[in-house]
């Protein structure tokens, strides 16, 4: 259908479907020279069957009653990055919410993962969503249980909008337990769907909508995913679209993280452990660098090399004289005496019966 619309425009494509006959040139182009040509006639029969039950005027009226809007390619709110999908680009999108979709997706990250998320996955997703939103990045996800819901809730705590891409009509709350979450997303972000109002979710629609999640964002983060998780389907779309792909590592014993580990092992995804890592990956070069992680800074880290060598040569229990310490530290005795005085003043060492020892701080 995408190729048909691209070739003849929306009205021309609809006219051919109504007539029940596709342009022979188009059919020839779709079928010639291909090892597995599409069954164009079967598609045409399916489109005509669906056309019998279509009522676009009623759909638009219902959308208006819900406070929703319909956008198409070329509209000001249409995100142009969806054009990267080529013939798989959505023909139109239903939106429900206060945020502008195109503006919201200029700096955006998709956060996806398992519906049956572990407490670890839920915690990481919420932290990731909150950190991204606080840094001004929109979080895009699918509004499902588990990782999706946690990422949306975390994002709602920040200043940036959040985008939920559904596999059903914008008037359908699925899953039903996320009713309050969807209401919050509409108030601060926007809900998106290819389906008109009233359409129920099906398994294929979840996989179909994943391409939209991947295309809307600059990059996708898989927080937690089993080997057969639908989140890996989103990851596949991200790779095909040349978007950044990242994965969060989990316990090696967790089946829920096996998909993430496989992505990292195959070098298909970058390993990330914080929202700072994600922003560095998808952000502007030189502007969004994550700080290098460091261990805790200890007081002795500020000591110069000679003083640190003297300190390391002072015994912990029995005292040692300056000459013994000098040999162990590899410095002369005057240097040891001066350094010991400074270390004693700083509380690192103390005099003992037989020389100097480390001071035990309780």
From TrEMBL:
Domain of life: Bacteria
Gene3D superfamilies xref list: 3.40.50.450
Smf/DprA SLOG domain span: 70-281
Family under the similarity heading: Belongs to the DprA/Smf family.
Protein name per UniProt: DNA-processing protein DprA
């Amino acid at each position: 259908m995408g190729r048909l619309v691209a070739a003849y425009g929306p009205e021309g494509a609809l006219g051919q479907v109504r007539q029940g006959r596709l342009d022979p040139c188009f059919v020839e182009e779709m079928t010639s020279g291909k090892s597995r040509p599409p069954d164009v006639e079967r598609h045409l029969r399916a489109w005509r069957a669906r056309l019998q039950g279509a009522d676009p005027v009623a759909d638009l009226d219902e959308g208006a009653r819900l406070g929703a809007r319909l956008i198409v390619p070329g509209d000001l709110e249409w995100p142009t990055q969806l054009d990267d999908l080529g013939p798989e680009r959505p023909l139109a999108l239903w939106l429900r919410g206060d945020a502008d979709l195109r503006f919201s997706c200029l700096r955006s990250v998709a956060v996806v993962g398992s519906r049956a998320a572990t407490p670890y996955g839920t915690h990481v997703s919420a932290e990731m969503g909150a950190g991204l939103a606080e840094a001004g990045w929109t979080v895009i996800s699918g509004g499902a249980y588990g990782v999706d819901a946690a990422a949306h809730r975390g994002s709602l705590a920040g200043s940036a909008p959040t985008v939920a891409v559904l596999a059903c009509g914008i008037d359908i709350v699925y899953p039903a337990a996320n009713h309050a979450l969807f209401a919050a997303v509409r108030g601060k972000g926007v809900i998106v769907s290819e389906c008109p109002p009233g359409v129920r979710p099906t398994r294929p629609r979840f996989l179909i909508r994943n391409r939209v999640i991947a295309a809307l964002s600059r990059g996708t983060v898989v927080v937690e995913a089993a080997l057969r998780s639908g989140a890996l389907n989103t990851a596949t779309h991200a790779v095909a679209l040349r978007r950044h792909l990242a994965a969060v590592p989990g316990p090696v014993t967790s089946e829920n993280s096996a998909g993430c580990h496989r992505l990292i092992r195959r070098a298909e995804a970058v390993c990330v452990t914080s929202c700072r890592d994600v922003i560095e990956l998808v952000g502007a070069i030189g502007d969004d660098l994550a700080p290098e992680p460091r261990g805790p800074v200890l007081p002795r880290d500020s000591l110069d090399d000679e003083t640190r060598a003297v300190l390391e040569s002072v015994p912990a229990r029995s005292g040692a004289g300056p000459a013994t310490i000098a040999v162990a530290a590899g410095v002369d005795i005057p240097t040891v005496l001066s350094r010991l005085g400074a270390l004693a003043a700083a509380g690192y060492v103390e005099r003992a019966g037989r020389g100097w020892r480390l001071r035990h701080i309780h």
